[in-house]
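Input (structure):
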């Protein structure tokens, strides 16, 4: 059971929890659209990052959308998932972690990937803190 009521603003359960502040919701959706409409990373890479973070961040709503893949062949997705997984366990990247990611991504891509990871983490932590469940009714 969610900790607060759903607002009338937003189209998803997550948005309706955030929608108690309409201005915040609009800006949040704008940032989400910016990150997810970017062509820098494939939709598959973004989804694998979202999945690993869902399990690390404890968001039941997000975990219900699917578990992380057991095998990832694409080196870019492997690197992104590694950094996403590491982000929940460390506050700083080691030199080895950074060297590995630098082999696969440019500076701009690293910046965007870390922004994506932090944004998804914020979304999922918000959902987890408010006990957003996988089968909520709006």
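Output (sequence):
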């Amino acid at each position: 059971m969610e900790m607060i009521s759903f607002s009338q603003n937003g189209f998803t359960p997550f948005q309706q929890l955030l929608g108690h502040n309409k201005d915040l919701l609009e800006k949040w959706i704008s940032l989400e659209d910016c990150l997810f409409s970017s062509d820098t990373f494939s939709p598959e890479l973004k989804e694998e990052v979202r999945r690993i973070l869902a399990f690390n961040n404890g968001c039941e709503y997000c975990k219900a959308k699917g578990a992380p893949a057991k095998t990832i062949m694409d080196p870019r997705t492997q690197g992104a998932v590694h950094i996403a997984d590491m982000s929940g366990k460390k506050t700083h990247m080691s030199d080895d972690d950074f060297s590995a990611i630098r082999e696969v991504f440019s500076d701009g891509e690293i910046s965007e990937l870390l922004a994506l990871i932090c944004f998804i983490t914020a979304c999922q932590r918000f959902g987890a803190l408010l006990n957003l469940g996988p089968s909520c009714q709006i």
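Notes: The domain at 13-129 is CATH 1.20.1290.10 (AhpD-like). The chain has one domain: 13-129.
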